[in-house]
Amino acid sequence: MLRERGPEVALARELTPGQKRVTPASVVADLAILAWFVFSLFPLVWMVLLALKNDADQTSTYFRFSPTTANFGTVLSQRGQDLTSVDFGQAMLTSVLNCAGAVLVSLVVGIPAAYAAGRWKFKGSEDLMFQMLSFRFAPELMVIVPLFVIYNTLGVFDTKLGMVWVLQLVTMPLVVWILRSYFQDLSPELEQAALLDGYTRRRAFLTVALPLVRPGIAAAALLAFIFAWNNYLFPLILTDSAATTVTVAVTKYLGGGGQAYYNLTAAAALLGALPPLVLALTIQRYLVRGLSFGAVKA
Amino acid sequence: MSTTTLGTTAKSLVLESLHKRYESRGREPFHAVKGIDLHIEPGELVALLGPSGCGKTTTLRMIAGLETVTSGDIRIGDRSIPDLPPGKRDVGVGFESYALYPPLDVRGNLTYGLRARGVKDADTRVRAIAERLEMTDLLGLRPAGLSSGQKQRVALARALVRNPPVLLLDEPLSHLDAAQRQRVRRELKVLQREFGYTTIVVTHDQLEALSLADRLAVMDAGIIQQFGTADEIFDDPANRFVADFVGEPKINLAEGVVERTGVVRVGRDGALATASRAPAGTAVTVGVRPQDARVAVGEEPSVPGEVVVYEDLLEFGLATVRVEGLDASLVVQTPADVRWRRGDAVRLAAPPQRVYLFEPEGGARLR
I need a surface site. Which of A86, A147, A196, B279 has the fewest CB within 10 A? Predict the structure, then answer.
């Protein structure tokens, strides 16, 4: 790792003096980037501020107020539950279970699928891959009504099993497409060497190919988890209370018909964003490589 | 000697009308290997030499079991292997990309295959092969930390450590620089002799093939064009492809007509004596190697021309001679002690048995 990084460090050192040169164009570019950052981060800043406001300040637009952290406590306490009829902590747990389940299913089925699609061209392999991607073309809204009917008929409405089932529609294509490119980057001669060494195809896959795509698996799993976590429409329509998720629970504070608690909504949203954020920070290193799709070097 | 742990009983390798045809829906079927017959003696080293796409690697992969055999048979000793999985065929393969397992160190790479077979004295064997290949200091390193020469050595050790009676090497020297290439070439040859493996080396590099192999199989378009010793192939090429592909500098090829049996017309005023019995009037392609062309003496049939370029390459010279009535110039390899000059008028001739005639279409040799 260190060795690989060596030349880049040297290169950066060489470039640094050059980058210090200030020209009118560079100033304009810097200002443009700054403006873009302010624009894109402002909603986030606003939300953080909102989450720290009292009930009295929640509809104000000034930045001057006495901050409080009580909202977070409210969301997680019995009072929050009384306001919305949703146990937010329970919803967090449900979300974690749903998403972990969907990611797990996607990995167990998706890794072998990605390997097969990356290694062999078989009849219809490209069509299959395209079809998998096409799950992501159509708006979820298009399939939600038939899904609702099916879920009610099969009795998986408002169950964790049902949520895992529908969320893996979101996560599976991601896992398969990312990992396929990882497997394609891997020299097939590695597994062939293992075959000649007397291993079976399965053992060659498990002991040679799989360990080498571990960064890809980490990245794909994380991305899939985030996508599943952020999904709103499926839990909104396909759950009621037992299997409801964070995304749905957050919106309850906007009060369907009753009073809207904007500060509590913001606090809940921030709490809801924590698990993916923590996950992303832990495996950030893999995430960048995962997004660059492949690039495993032996 | 550590031959007790490393020795093996060499076995013959026979390919019998071996075919490989790729057929996939909606695409032209591709006949990569069109009936190969090859009988390789126990302990012999044979080079499969040919341009890229000639089917040599496909042939190798069929022997290794990495490609299915469309039809035909492969036998190691008296065992037919096309239906066996790669691991049960008793072949060791050195891959072009080396294909070392990146997460394992060199020792791990070498023992990996032995573990799969449940070999008991794995450590002893690995130590013996590492000592023989003088790479004990590499055993603890990961492949990423090795030079390409060292990787090649480890890949070879991995193929050898299982003691396979048949060893297949795919372009073993292609990733090495010139100096390493020479050294590894010699090493390979010594090792192969010592261990006695029946070996096939696939290469597109004739120098590699000539230096390593006992016999060469020159392949093109899925067919073995000629199988023989280097001398046989160089001195008595079976057809125009072989004559053209083997030999450095390349053979001179020129259009000509047989004037009378034993003499062929080349260019406007030239003629060459040939050992071919082709009858008068036959249109032919004439082949003369630069090494065989020389200055004519006396009244023998000859080709007049003018030196347009002379390159002094120290050990020998190369003269490019323009001949009236020929599209291409002729190249002549001259001895080191003779210097030709640009503008010299020369009359060229060659020994009659070294003047090859080929059919203009197809390139079959006319003897």
Answer: B279
Q: What's the topology of domain B3-240? A: Rossmann fold (3.40.50)
Considering A33, A52, A76, which residue would you say is the last residue of a domain?
Answer: A76
B52 inside 8 A of chain A by CB: no
Same structural domain for residues A71 and A188?
A: no
Summarised one tens digit per residue, pLDDT across range A228-252 is: 999 999 999 999 888 889 999 998 8
* B92: chain A residues, CB-CB within 8 Å: 196
Work out the number of other CB atoms within 10 angstroms of the CB of residue A144.
Answer: 17
- Per-residue pLDDT reduced to its tens digit, A79-96: 878 788 888 999 999 999
What average pLDDT does the structure give for chain A?
A: 84
Residues A129 and A221 grouped into a single domain: yes
pTM: 0.77
The CATH class of B250-366 is mainly beta
Q: Which helix H or strand E contains A143, and what residues bound it?
A: helix A140-154
Distance CA A242, CA B101 (A): 49
Q: Please name the member of A187, A198, A208 whose beta carbon is closest to the beta carbon of B87.
A: A198
- Average pLDDT, integer, range A165-179: 92
- Give tens-digit pLDDT for B180-220: 888 888 888 888 888 888 999 999 988 889 888 999 999 99
Q: Give the closest of B87, B97, B162 to A199, CB-based.
A: B87
pLDDT at A26 > cutoff 80: yes
Q: Which of A44, A76, A108 is the last residue of a domain?
A: A76
CB B341 within 8 A of CB B321: no
Count: domains in chain A: 2
Span(s) in chain B for CATH 3.40.50.300: 3-240
Asked if the C-beta of B22 comes within 8 angstroms of chain A's C-beta atoms, the answer is: no
Specify the CATH number for the domain of residue A156. Answer: 1.10.3720.10
Domain that holds residue A71: 2-76
Q: How far is B98 from chain A (nearest CA, A)?
A: 8
Burial A171-209 (b: 16+ CB within 10 A, else e): bbbbbbbbbbbbbbbbbbbbbbbbbbbbbeeeebbebbb
B55, B219 contact by CB (below 8 A) = yes
Q: CA of A186: which chain B residue's CA is closest?
A: B99
Please check whether residues A63 and A162 belong to one and the same domain. Answer: no
